[in-house]
Amino acid sequence: MSVKKTILLQIMMIVMSLSLSSSICYASTLTVGETGGLPGHRGLYLPVYLSSEPGEDVAGAQLDVVFDSTMLAVQDVIAGPAAAAAEKEVSFSHFAAGRVRIVITGFNQNVISDGVVAYTLFDILGSAPVGAETVSLSDVLLADPDGVEVPSTTVSGSIDILAATPGGFNGPGGILSGMAVFLVIGVWVIKTEKPCMKPSPY
C-alpha cells in the first residue's frame, strides 16, 4: 500500500470517528418510583424523578402517567422538591381512562435539578386484587430554557397491592385490634369500679 493510500485511509478513519462521536446523544431520564398499600388505601405518594446528563438542562416538562384504571385512581398531582426549587408549577388533567397528563412549567428559565419533580397521589380501589401494578410514562416532552426539546428516556415504576396480614397492624388479632380490646376493658373497669366509701364514725 502506497503512502498516499495510507494517509487517505487514516483521514477517512478520523472523519468516521468524529462523525460517530458527534451522533452520540445524551438524554434526561424520568423514573417512576415505587410504593404500596392495601386495597382501599388512599393518597399514596408515587414520585417521578428527573436525572439529566451533563449539558442537558431541563426547564419544563410534559408527561402522561399511564396505569390500570380498574385497579388504581389518581386524586391529585403536586410539585416535587426539584420542581419547587426551580419555581415551577405543576398542573394535571385526566386525559383518558388510566392516563393523567402532567405539565411542569413556570414563568422563568430556571433549570430543574435532579430529583423528584412531581408526586402523583394514587388511590388503590377496594376491589383491586393483590399484586404489583405497573405505572409507566408516555408522550414525554422535555424542554430546555430556550424551549428546545431535550432527548428523554423513561423508567416505569409500580404500586404493590398488599394483602391484609392476620395478626398484622390492622388485621384480626393485630395491634389495633388489641388496643381496641384494651380500651373496652379499661372503660368497663372504670364504669364498674365502686366509689370509695368513707368509714362510718359509729
Strand content: 35-45%
Order of helices and strands: HEEEEEHEEEEEEEH
What is the number of E strands?
Answer: 12
The total tally of domains equals: 1
Radius of gyration: 29 Å
What is the CA-CA span between the terminal residues? Answer: 134 Å
Largest pleated sheet: 7 strands, mixed
- What is the global morphology? elongated
Fold-level CATH name: Immunoglobulin-like
CATH architecture: Sandwich
The total of helices stands at: 3
Protein structure class = alpha+beta
Mean pLDDT: 81
CATH class: Mainly Beta
Which segments are poorly predicted (pLDDT under 50) over 5 or more consecutive residues?
4-9, 13-23, 169-202
Helix content: 10-25%
Q: What can you tell me about this protein's structure?
A:
With 202 residues, the protein is of the alpha+beta class. The chain has one domain: Immunoglobulin-like (Sandwich). The protein has helices at residues 3-22, 81-85, 175-192, and strands at 28-32, 34-37, 44-51, 60-66, 72-79, 89-96, 99-105, 115-124, 131-143, 149-150, 152-155, 157-161. Strands 2, 4, 6, 7, 9, 10 and 12 form a seven-stranded mixed β-sheet that branches. A five-stranded mixed β-sheet has the order 5-8-3-1-11. The longest helix is centred in the N-terminal third of the chain and has 20 residues, at 3-22. The radius of gyration is 29 Å and the shape is elongated. Residues 4-9, 13-23 and 169-202 have low confidence and may be disordered.
